[in-house]
What we know:
The structure is a single chain. The protein contains 7 helices and 3 strands. The protein is an alpha+beta fold. The chain has a domain at 8-107: 2-Layer Sandwich (GMP Synthetase, Chain A, domain 3), CATH 3.30.300.20. The chain has a 3-stranded mixed beta sheet, with helices on one face. Strand 1 (45-52) and strand 2 (58-65) form a beta hairpin. The termini are far apart.
Amino acid sequence: MPKAHQQAGEPSHRTLRVAELVRHTVSDLLTRGVINDPVLAGQVVTVPRVRMSPDLKLATVFVMPLGGKDVPGVVAALDRNKKFLRTEIARGVNLKFAPEVRFKADESFDAGAKIDALFERPDVKRDLASSSRTSHTPGGDQDEAEGEAE
């Protein structure tokens, strides 16, 4: 696929596909509980996304424990088991080189919570209610005018 069809800074289709394969592999490993770490033993950890470098040699895995509890501990536990995870990713994803793996806490849940909190503010609710009362559907006024002419 020629790169002329991509916008600058957008990941390629292959990069996205490999990122999704890495995400599924890490998710499966966490679900099966094959990582022997006391911090991860009682945790349900989600892997919302993985970002791959363009050369596919670096995978940044974003993780979040269920409920957001002990995020630094979970990231540290995954970092301690990085070598094992890299080996398992290499087995699960057919690449020439196994990518180096980095773990980061996923901030998108916090951003979503901030947006939800904004929508719950009384002034925002008032503004949304007033804008929905004053908005008209396109062509709605025209139909009423035609009805009166008949």
